[in-house]
Design goal:
Blueprint lengths: L10 H12 L22 H12 L11 H17 L7 E5 L2 H14 L8 E5 L5 H9 L2 E5 L10 H7 L4 E7 L11 H10 L3 E5 L7 H6 L16 E5 L11 E5 L2 H5 L3 E3 L7 E3 L9 H37 L4 E3 L7 E6 L7 H10 L5 E3 L8 E5 L8 H18 L6 H9 L7 H10 L13 H9 L2 H15 L5
Parallel strand pairs: 2-3, 2-4, 4-5, 5-6
Antiparallel strand pairs: 1-7, 6-7, 8-9, 10-11, 11-13, 12-13
Helix pairs in contact: 2-10, 3-10, 4-5, 6-7, 10-12, 11-12, 11-15, 14-16
Length: about 475
């Protein structure tokens, strides 16, 4: 265990230690981390956001009557998001801590609005974000997962409509999906939901702040906002393509009646009457104020320019990747996300390519195979990638050459058979520790520099076993040092 220091340390020493610890993290600026972070490339944004965060960090969003500035800034963010996404004067919303909370609340509101249904269900395409499965798990909602088109990876409107039943409380589609960057055909899906009196949520967490600008730039972006008849709620993250600090998201509802079931109130205790608009109670005003400041500073024309830079970077990277022998793009992305996989006879492994890119200073995110989607590498392209495309493509070609020289990662057939037979629910903690050690995820909680063999092993493990293995590993990471 690491005890508190016996005496307070000098502030400069504390910050120096923090900088030392942060030195081992992935870079959050410069466009070299193509997942998890969003970089506008604007040098002044960090300083502005930090200053705004500091001004409001001690304010508590739990009570807007005590801190009215937070309510006014939240209304401004909701209004800005609604304006981008085709909202009307009736559109309302809430600021949340991130996309997952926004998705959770959309499911919660839909469930709570139908107390007459004993076992409510949620209909979603197989490509929908895992946050909806988390919501189903937390709130006792049955997730009905519908296969997508095996080539385009877009939701199948007919199959989605057929899956809607008398117990369905919410239908979900993506704009775009995270894994492949494609926008689902929302109009027919929303129409089918509306015909049955079911709410329709559009997960635009990643695309809601960039797709409207791409459309203004002339891109053929499918309809996805409140202009689509039947859409009742939309989630959009400001800490993605609005380039605000984490974590700030907005959940929009078409009207206040739809939002009401999201709220929580409790007066049945001797303290203050608890009133919550989100899953959280106490909420620092810092992230809210930082997002408000960033939106005011960049402005509409600024976001249009950032979207243009991002679109050009995405197009350049996509074209360049398609010219690398052995690589191809999955689907036909509509936005700023790319999924890169290998040709069938490529003779190398994308997991090795990811390792080689890491050696060269880039992070690309491995994604495991699922249904018709093979193992691939996810790229989130941001405005900061503009101007650095050729450097990335040169390193990618070198990484592919190195991976081809190394050859495919192979897993022993006996081990594959063993993994297929294991029941994750029956294994003990000690047995999991042995499996983790065998996978190279030791008790120290650290990771090897190269992950190709570990990822290859995890990719052949059944999904349930993979989940348990990684959860056990997560438990190792979050343990105090002895």
């Amino acid at each position: 265990m690491t005890p508190l220091p016996p005496h307070g340390q000098d502030a400069s020493a504390v910050l120096a230690e923090l900088r030392e610890r942060r030195a081992g993290d992935l870079p959050t600026h410069g466009g070299r981390t193509l997942a998890y972070v969003y970089d506008s490339g604007l040098a002044e944004i960090d300083e502005l956001a930090a200053a705004a965060h500091a001004l409001a960090s001690s304010a508590n969003g739990l009570d807007p009557t005590a801190f009215p500035s937070l309510a006014s800034m939240e209304n401004d963010l909701v209004s800005a998001a609604a304006g981008l996404l085709g909202g009307t004067a009736a559109t309302v919303g809430s600021v949340t801590s991130g996309g997952t909370e926004s998705c959770l609340l959309a499911v919660l509101a839909a469930r709570n609005a139908r107390p007459d249904i004993d076992r409510p269900s949620l209909v979603l395409p197989a490509t929908a974000h895992a946050a909806f499965h988390k919501a189903a798990h937390y709130f006792g909602v049955r997730a009905v997962t519908v296969p997508v088109d095996p080539r385009t990876f877009r939701a199948d409107p007919a199959a989605m409509a057929a899956a809607v039943g008398p117990d369905t409380v919410l239908v979900v589609a993506s704009a775009p999906s995270y894994a492949h960057g494609v926008v689902d055909p929302l109009a027919p899906i929303a129409a089918a939901a509306a015909q049955r009196g079911v709410r329709m949520h559009v997960d635009a967490c990643i695309g809601g702040w960039v797709l409207p600008y791409l459309r203004r730039l002339g891109a053929d972006v499918p309809d996805f906002g409140f202009g689509v008849e039947g859409v009742t709620s939309i989630s959009v993250d400001l800490h993605k393509y609005a380039y605000c600090p984490k974590g700030v998201s907005v959940l929009l509802h078409a009207d206040a009646d739809l939002r009401r079931a999201q709220y929580f109130a409790s007066a049945d205790w001797p303290g203050y009457t608890m009133l919550n608009t989100t899953l959280q109670s106490t909420r620092s005003g810092g992230p809210l104020a930082a997002a408000w400041a960033v939106l005011r500073h960049i402005g509409d024309d600024g976001y249009l320019g950032l979207a243009e830079r991002t679109a050009k970077a995405t197009a350049t990277l996509r074209s360049g990747i398609e010219q690398v022998p052995g690589l191809r793009i999955l689907g036909d992305p509509d936005a700023t996300l790319l999924a890169v996989t290998t040709e069938e006879a490529a003779g190398f492994d994308v997991f090795t390519v990811a390792d080689e890119m890491r050696v060269r200073g880039w992070y690309v995110q491995p994604q495991f195979a699922h249904a018709s989607s093979p193992v691939n590498l996810h790229l989130t392209v941001t405005a900061a990638n503009r101007g650095n495309e050729q450097r990335f493509l040169d390193d990618l070609r070198a990484a592919v050459d190195a991976a081809r020289s190394a050859g495919p990662v192979t897993i022993d057939d006996g081990l594959v058979a063993l993994l297929a037979e294991l029941d994750p629910e029956q294994l003990t903690g000690e047995q999991f520790a042995g499996l983790l050690a065998g996978a190279g995820l030791g008790p120290g909680g650290g990771l090897p520099e190269r992950m190709a063999e570990i990822n290859a092993l995890l990719s052949v493990a059944p999904p349930g076993l993979r989940e348990r293995l990684l959860l056990e590993f997560l438990g190792l990471l979050y343990r105090p040092e002895e």
